[in-house]
Amino acid sequence: MTNLTPREIVSELDRFIIGQADAKRAVAVALRNRWRRQRLSPEMREEVYPKNILMIGPTGVGKTEISRRLAKLAKAPFLKVEATKFTEVGYVGRDVEQIIRDLVDAAMVETRERMREEVKTRAHKAAEERVIEALAGADAREQTREMFRRKLRDGELDDKQIEIEVADTAGPQMMLGGNPGMEMQMQGLQDLFKAFGGAKKTRRKMSVAESYEVLISEEADKLLDDEMVKTAALEAVSQSGIVFLDEIDKVAARAETRGADVSREGVQRDLLPLIEGTTVSTKYGPVKTDHILFIASGAFHIAKPSDLLPELQGRLPIRVELRPLTEEDFVRILTETDNALTRQYTALMGTEEVTVTFTEDGIAALARIAAEVNRSVENIGARRLYTVMERVFEELSFTAPDRAGDIVTVDAAFVEKHLGALAQSADLSRYVL
Ligand SMILES: Nc1ncnc2c1ncn2[C@@H]1O[C@H](COP(=O)(O)OP(=O)(O)OP(=O)(O)O)[C@@H](O)[C@H]1O
């Protein structure tokens, strides 16, 4: 759990997301409230529920990004799911519980990864022993083993092929078409199988360098206590999980169209217990959803928040509006964020030894064209920057390997040359930008 203050959380988010101050403040407070809650007496703690958030704003303006970055900052399990998914044919009520199961799955992967990092040094040692054994033979003398160890550490043996015995990951693991009952049974079978026979082994040929990765992760898994991973993951989900429910407006039924919208209202009814707090059984154990933070989001162009079921409205008490992005925002997104596309393209081209620099008027041209296409074709927010940049760099991306040593300046003329004609024709840009 992070102990950053709301102000610090906002300033962390500022590194990646331009503007949208209200939304940043709301999520920062939500996160801080969790920290506060952890400091309460156990009885009081149980009483304090998260104040879920409703983000209202057009597509591509940072709703998901804010939530995802927040989760990352908090090292909290995160899942994005579209509410409309549950209106599709074939879904039945209980399926919304799959959200929590997916969240647990994500948390298991993250938790195992994190704990694996913690045991990595020990795992590395054990993996090295196994590689040396594969290279030198099981009964080699200590001297020989030392010689191999030295060469191995110097990387001299990286390309050498060896045969090692590894766990057969294709074992009895099966995906059973999302049937949780069956999955739980299979898990039981797998545990049984492990307890009796141990995991199945198979011999595989690979290079020393490749074998390291496989062996380290295998050794790390041996050192990891499955029970511990499971407990930590379940705890992380129930205490700090974040679910981002996109397109909630699309399941809002407006009063006059009720008849045709039964299934949408049904989805809201199904979601309600999750948000109000219930217990969902997963293959790793039961999870209480009471303290999971839900961030619902939608454009609400047609439906309004007041068209949601009253109970659901009550469970999403914090409302924040995100505004459409302007040309000036695009300039800032292209230059000020830590992960700005200009930085990414410069770094990518750098790997081919092509030096890319952007001039101010080049950036202004990119932002202007993105804003224009958003106006004339469809407003997809900052996502437009991706398509515009990809187009501008298309030729350079292709030819860069032949251009090592070149210096390329992306100025207004460069942008115009690669994009000008396209951007002027709405018909053309509809397809390519
Ligand atoms: N305000 C912003 N600052 C920086 N980057 C942004 C901003 N808004 C959006 N982006 C970038 O645009 C992309 C899409 O944004 P995001 O996924 O947050 O959209 P969204 O608002 O959740 O839309 P949707 O509801 O359609 O999913 C992301 O890669 C994000 O980094």
Automatic annotation (TrEMBL):
Transmembrane regions: none
Cite a GO CC annotation: HslUV protease complex
Chain sites annotated for binding ATP = I18, G60, V61, G62, K63, T64, E65, D246, E311, R383
GO BP annotations, alphabetical order = protein unfolding
Q: Which UniProt keywords apply?
A: ATP-binding, Chaperone, Cytoplasm, Hydrolase, Nucleotide-binding, Protease
Q: Which locations, inside or outside the cell, does it occupy?
A: Cytoplasm
Query: Which InterPro entries does this one have?
Result: AAA+_ATPase, ATP-dep_Clp_protease_ClpX, ATPase_AAA_core, Clp_ATPase_C, HslU, P-loop_NTPase
Domain Clp ATPase C-terminal span(s) in chain numbering: 325-421
> Which SUPFAM superfamilies does the UniProt entry name for this protein?
P-loop containing nucleoside triphosphate hydrolases
Major localization listed first in the record, in broad terms: cytoplasm
**Keyword Protein transport listed:** no
Q: Which residues form the AAA+ ATPase domain?
A: 49-322
Q: What does this protein do?
A: ATPase subunit of a proteasome-like degradation complex; this subunit has chaperone activity. The binding of ATP and its subsequent hydrolysis by HslU are essential for unfolding of protein substrates subsequently hydrolyzed by HslV. HslU recognizes the N-terminal part of its protein substrates and unfolds these before they are guided to HslV for hydrolysis.
Under the heading PANTHER family, the entry gives:
ATP-DEPENDENT CLP PROTEASE ATP-BINDING SUBUNIT CLPX-LIKE, MITOCHONDRIAL-RELATED, ATP-DEPENDENT PROTEASE ATPASE SUBUNIT HSLU
Q: Which HAMAP family does this chain map to?
A: HslU
Q: Oligomeric state and partners?
A: A double ring-shaped homohexamer of HslV is capped on each side by a ring-shaped HslU homohexamer. The assembly of the HslU/HslV complex is dependent on binding of ATP.
What name goes with this protein?
A: ATP-dependent protease ATPase subunit HslU
Species the sequence originates in: Rhodobacter maris
- Which taxonomic lineage does the organism of this UniProt entry have? Bacteria, Pseudomonadati, Pseudomonadota, Alphaproteobacteria, Rhodobacterales
Q: Which gene encodes it?
A: hslU
